[in-house]
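Quick check before the chapter quiz. The format below is the same one you will see on the exam, so make sure you can read both the input and the output lines.
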Amino acid sequence: MIRRVALTLALLFAGTSLAVLPAHAEELCAVDLNGNGDAADPGETASCTAMTGGSWQCPIQQVSCTIGTGNQYACPLGAQYRCAAPVSGGTPTCSPNVCIDTGQNPIVSEPVVDDPGAANDGQVDAQGNCLGNIQIFSGRALRCRPPGLLDTFQNCCADKGKIVKDGMGSSLMSLSTKITVAKDLFTGIKAAYTAFKAGATASEAASAGAHAIIVGIDPTTIAISLAIDFMVEVLLQGCDEQDMETGMLKGSGMCHEVGEYCASSVLGICIQKAKSQCCFNIKLGRIIQEQGRPQLKNFNAIGWGPVKHPDCRGFTAEEFQALDFSKMDLSEYYADVESKAHSDIQVDMKDKIDAYVQAINP
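Here is the expected output.
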């Protein structure tokens, strides 16, 4: 049997400037149609319809009522289901699913992952060289949300194309520069989201974000026009700040998906899922992490860590030196730097990484 669980879900977005969100509490219902224990899958959540008599009706599995005995409307699903006409007018309908007030049954949400990455808290010498332990290709734990109740049914995890350009370049400095790109993306996305919430249009907010992104970095490392288009679309979809950051990095091939978990629930029923990610500063970091971790016993027990709180730490210098690059498939990376022969790229890449490690850990 289909397990029916219908819930009234109030989204308290009053006072926000997000045009795609309601400015008042909205009656919603969620139904576990496929019996998997949650109501977070496509088609399992919907806005309840205002009916005559001050009631609400769930449109999921809703059917039209028929004329029955005594010329009265009757619900074909059973006499226990009440027929009512929409306030907007039309034929009376009925639904097997009810709406329940979240004022009495609040939505419980997991805290948004807020991982600043590895702290730069070691001592340095007069030249700025690290004197302590370093992490190589360190990442950050982030999350994005697939279509669900709390992201206005939009897919905030959808790839929007390659915005961040990844390549080793022709100098050691180019690698160092690219390692700062993700940090500048976060700065720009935060600026865009803050401007949007303060009342700017999506286009104005995206332009402000793009300006913040390119300050201090080589503009050739990011496709600014694509970034602006991406930010406009995401802002109008109702995705939040971290959805935006994760989407931009994920679409550029810089994130490893760790798993999916329930981000919000009511009465123990999941109504919004999230996908946890380990996102790295460059695409090469993600590729080497994915293929390097299985080679190291230090990661055998933890893998990528718990789904809700991924372990995105970088390699220690000793772990990095133990990696066997000959066993790695770097074809995905080669495709991004097609101007060189594969063998030359592999040698060049290894030399540059070794040189970079030597520079920051003499």
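If your answer matched, good. The radius of gyration is 25 Å.
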